[in-house]
TetR family transcriptional regulator
Amino acid sequence: MSDTEASPEPALPHAVALSWGVAERPQRGPKRELSIERIVDAAIEIADAEGLGAVSMAKVASALGFTTMSLYRYVTSKDDLLLLMQDAIAGIELPEPPDDDWRAGLKQWTLGNVEALKRHPWYSQLPITSVPMTPNTMRLIDTALRALRPAPLTDNEKMACVLLVASYARAVGGVQGSIAESGASPEEVSGSAYASVLASLITADRFPDLAPVVTSGAYTSDDYDDFAFGLERMLDGIQRYIDEGGSSAAPTSSDDTEARDSALYSSDKRVKEAAKARREAEKALRDARKRERDALKTARERAENAKAKAAR
């Protein structure tokens, strides 16, 4: 092949092509009663009832009343089946995010994902082998990015934010789903049923920092929403990153040089004055951004009140 001749584009993985409907499907199935959709639905039912480990091509075929070889006419491997199951679960319906509040939109998106994953705790056990490429997962990402439209972030920063909250939702949804699946009582889950025993075992000499937490009851309390706390702190972190200028605030090589020179010549009167002016300008910028957020919030509330009044 010559240097100027283009290399052929690699074909999509078979399961991805199936999910998009661009892979060749069998023209004649057994009694034409079998389909990829039925196979995926049956596999999900097995995983919901017995866990991901119970899913096999043979078991899915048996549940549908066909031979294992019949399934291979539609889905060529168990790995393909797992990817199609993943895409099916990602096909959840989420409300449209607000146009002017990225934080509310991203929170809404994360909570919706957690609820879906709670219903299918095995989802968090699915292998991750590449970036999402199937249609439902791509649609889910598209919705998250739509929530981030108002945020002054680069494309890479927005994708990093989506990955951050998606990973959190995957972990929390899996844990909460497993707890619900176990059938344990709330007292067993929180550990409050064993609080007095734990308090006698977790002593201050062996566990100096954990002991007071156990004694106070915080360790076994189910009154505090740990998930909500964690999500809010992640959103706080993104907000602070935005407030501090995002990627534009990241130090460059020239910034490093200026920082070294500033430290070296910090006693110079003009350097001191310039550094003070910079700090004041940065504070003014933060204050201006806060005023802008407050104004947007007030305007949104006025619009909502006017809409509610008109509806009455």
